[in-house]
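new request in #modeling-help
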Amino acid sequence: MVIEHDKMRSLAARMAQPEVRGRSPWADARRRFLRNKAAMAGLVILLLVALFAIFGGQIAIWSNEELDFSVMGQVATMGHPSLENGHYFGTDDLGRDLFARTVQGTQISLLVGIVGAGIAVIVGTLYGAVAGYVGGRTDQVMMRTVDILMSIPYMFVLILLLVMFGRSMTMLFLGIGLISWLDMARIVRGQTLSLKNREFIEAARATGVSTWRIIIRHIVPNLLGVVAVYATLLVPLMILTESFISFLGLGVQEPLTSWGALISEGAGTMSYGTLWQLAFPLFFFVITLFGFFFVGDGLRDALDPKER
Amino acid sequence: MFAFILRRLAIAVPTLLLLIVLSFVLMHLAPGGPFTQERALPPQVLANLNAKYGLDDPLWRQIWNYVYGILVHFDFGPSFVYPDRTVNQLIADGFPVTLTYGTLSFLAAVLVGVTLGTLAAIRQNGWLDYLAVGISIGAQVLPNFVMAPLLVLALTLWLGWLPGGGWSFSDPSFWIMPVIALSTSYMASIARITRSSMLEVLGSNHIRTARAKGMPERRVILRHALRPAMLPVVSYLGPVFVSMITGSVVIDIYFSTGGIGKAFVDSALNRDYAVMMGVTILVGALTILFNLVVDILYAWIDPKIRY
């Protein structure tokens, strides 16, 4: 009988080693996420866009409000992107620097997306966790309310709100925040239902911890995975909503701007041949959405490998 | 089944009432009134006008009249801006257009999406699959307000094949771009949903049985796999429908198609609250109705649901 010495030796070596250290689910998830090429690419894109939004203003030679009188009136021939006169992305049809405008639009669109998703995370998580944990009639009433709110055509109501109470950033945040938490509340409630009968919750209840404290200290931290995934996917949806409204001219107002407003401007002037006015905002809009979708999908796959 | 429909109606009707009351209260809270102008009217004239239109009645009375008018006479009242037009007229002008391209877009999104998703699932990891997945990933960042300018750029400005805007019921060349712009991103979502649910169904036991007894593959897919695989798609139809109507706002503005979205945005820019509310309530009612239909459809397709 031939003994494979190499194999025996490696086996012995392995047996001599201390027990393999267990990997926590979080470490596993991180490993899976880091290995996901699309998600990592998305993360890099998002970082670059964020850097652009933060430091773009320093690179810009023109401010977003200055009119360049040397190109004004002849934007189609003179306003094209050029490194010489400092309009890296060209100018818009009023002779304003498109680079500075894009930086500003990026800041505002990202802000709207993140604030909208933030409101959804806070309100939706608490609402869903309370409904799911308390259960019974409270749950019934709370979730029926969500059902009713969901069947309202929110884009129309949002525009209604913006028109009736003035088009300001605050109103935009409020309006977007009002609708964004509904889905989150549903998802969180479902998750809470499966958590609430687990032993550690029972133990907390048995030792007399108050309901509110159980929700904050024990339920909510265990929801973080789901909430993080959903929040990442919610940011692009909020950006889409804001861009949609700004495209119609009902959202962010001059001198502020956003991707939607810039795309709208670019789309309105493209027949004069000034394609850069559409191309640059659109480019940032598209890659950012891609970035968020890829990172969100990657997070979901990493945290829940069963769901593919 | 009948009890199930009744139960769903019991939720749908209060929702609609709530929507009407909510938008009325919103309008009431908003600063300014229908007769607010740049030059203030003499107070007596204003009071007379308010009395004539019942605006000095208590709020509950006004709400009651408004709800009653809508539900019983289907009357949304007069426009606040155009003296000679009622909200009903404005809606009646735009609605057929919206309905035409909306329905076409909805059908396109569902039919193409389901076909693409099913083919991708059958040929998993084949070139068709990669193509379908690639398209659906790409299209989710191309909402209607991005597709619209890109289509005009390519098909009108560069190629000159299609008119860049306008509407005609008799000439389908006006319909093509609105339908593509409106349906692309939903088509992609539907394809993705169909693909993943189809893959799941194709791995299940009853499909293996069907194949094991020698049933032709075509029949396996069409008879046994498609129906259960449609369930997630059906529950996505509600949001798609809403987005078609919402998207009509962009389509009407960008392509000057003159649908209901144009009435809405015009009224939003003119602060014509009556028209805005009328459109919002109409859209809300359609949404609620459609969700009801989808729920019934879902219950009908899914044998596991007991109603």
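bot summary: Chain B touches chain A through 48 residues (CB under 8 Å).
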